[in-house]
Amino acid sequence: MAIKYSREPAVRAAIIPQTKTILGYIGIAGCDGLNLHRPSLSPIQGKTTMRLNTLGGINLLLAAFAIVLGVAATALWPMINDVKTGETPQYPDIHPQRFAQPYDRVFNAALAAAGALRLDISAQDREQGEIRAVATTALLRFRDDVTITLRRDGASVEVNVRSRSRVGKGDFGTNARRIRRFQEELAKRL
Q1: Under the phi-then-psi rule, with left for phi > 0, alpha for psi from -120 to 50, and beta for the rest, what region is 5?
Q2: Residue 83 in contact with residue 115, Cβ under 8 Å?
Q3: E strand or H helix that includes residue 187
Q4: How many angstroms separate the CA atoms of 97 and 182, rounded?
């Protein structure tokens, strides 16, 4: 049923409260409902139109989108913010890497891979086999700690990576993706 603007006060008095009530219950037009009291002249179409108070509708849509996004995120990614190769059961595909290369070559390649991923190297200890870095997320600029450890294992070198968010309970898979990208970059260099 289309509602037409009427100059008759009796018609306006009957239609406007009902419309505001219906739209207010479903949250489409916010608390003001439709602005039927003052028609506006559309400069593009050159005819009289009714204006919809869209602020309430936009807020409702944003809230619904945030809820759907939150539900989808928890279904897609586990609610953890600390991922380590070989020790995080939520990501069984992330294992330590082993390279049959000299230790110094693997350490240098790990430093280069960290630099390629734009990790900010905060400390490195070649003797202890540890590289500490900080990663900054692109969207909200969160800072995450990344620790790369190298261990001699006979004739090979084992590389473990830990990526941990400083804030929050979940990371939407960011730490796992970071570790996978690091491992791919390191494998390319060796």
Answers
A1: beta
A2: no
A3: helix 174-189
A4: 11
Q: What are the structure tokens assigned to 58, written together? A: 């936009």
Which stretches does DSSP call E strand in the chain?
34-41, 48-52, 82-84, 97-99, 120-125, 130-136, 143-153, 156-165
Confidence band, pLDDT 50/70/90 cuts, at residue 38: very low
Report pLDDT digits (tens) over 163-173.
999 988 878 88
Question: Angle 174-189/103-116 helices, nearest 10 degrees?
Answer: 130
Domain that holds residue 20: 9-75
DSSP H helical segments within 52-164, as ranges? 54-76, 103-116
pLDDT, one tens digit per residue, over 114-123 is 999 999 999 9
Residue 66 structure tokens: 């945030």
Reported pTM: 0.62
Together in a domain, 71 and 91? no
Residue that is last in its domain, among 19, 42, 75? 75
d(C-alpha 88, C-alpha 80), whole Å? 10
Tally the domains of the chain.
2
Mean pLDDT in the chain? 78
The answer to whether position 112 is within a domain reads yes
